[in-house]
Amino acid sequence: MNLETTVELSNGVKIPQLGLGVYKVDRGEEVYQTVQSALNVGYRHIDTASFYGNEEGVGKAIKDSGISREELFVTTKVWNDEQGYEETLQAFERSLKRLQMDYVDLYLIHWPVPNQFKQTWKALEKLYYEGKVRAIGVSNFLQHHLDDLLLEAEIVPMINQVEFHPQLYLKELLHYCQQRGIQLEAWSPLARATYLDHPLLLQLGGKYGKSPAQIILRWDLQHGIVTIPKSTHKERQVENVNIYDFSLTKLEMNEINNLHCDRRVGSHPDQINS
């Protein structure tokens, strides 16, 4: 395993298992430098969204990198106030223009907006059938949202990107998605660094000569999760990918699983109204 390790989605498209998230990375120079740095380190998977306001910087950094588009995996998302059938199709074209791309590798519904996400999904299916996206999926969908969507969907989402970390170990959702061929992807895998001082993570870090962050990211990989830690600093970007030279034991994996306390750093999906 290394930074080029991929996971195959249900339609055969391969997504790098570890990527770079750019939520709350400022538009313009900061996101440009962040993406350029990550690409130089060896990242080939970049995750953005229209809501982040930094698609232009991401697109420019990719274009200026000289790396062929086919080598990269780029994700963006449709925001809550852009949802609906026609609205989503228009939002996608705006994202493409900002990214300066002809297609994206993965397009996601950002949140399950009630009474909107089914029509939004119809638009994503259209984009997929037309070849404008290589894969489509959802973000922040719980089991009941997926149940509801699958009643009418022609295509089963290829990805469900959710908040997922040891204190929010969504075991049932992970199993649900695995049973249906939906790849789970973790946003905020390090929980915004809110408990990297946990004794268990420090202990395991000491054992393996790794940081608590590296222990968590390794835990993600061993659960088969695609993970997209954010870092604007090259040293951290390098640290985040230096997780392929050790393995956690089954006992250690279970110990980390047991940190679960249903604690979120982001919004609860059922509290999204618009």
UniProtKB/TrEMBL annotation:
Family matches, as InterPro entries: AKR, Aldo/ket_reductase_CS, NAD(P)_OxRdtase_dom_sf, NADP_OxRdtase_dom
Lineage: Bacteria, Bacillati, Bacillota, Bacilli, Bacillales
Keyword NADP belongs to the record: yes
Domain NADP-dependent oxidoreductase: start-end pairs: 18-258
Site (Lowers pKa of active site Tyr): K77
UniProt entry keywords in alphabetical sequence: NADP, Oxidoreductase
Name used for this protein in its record: Glyoxal reductase
Keyword Protein biosynthesis: no
Domain of life: Bacteria
Catalytic residues in the record: Y52
Organism of provenance: Halobacillus andaensis
Family indicated by similarity: Belongs to the aldo/keto reductase family.
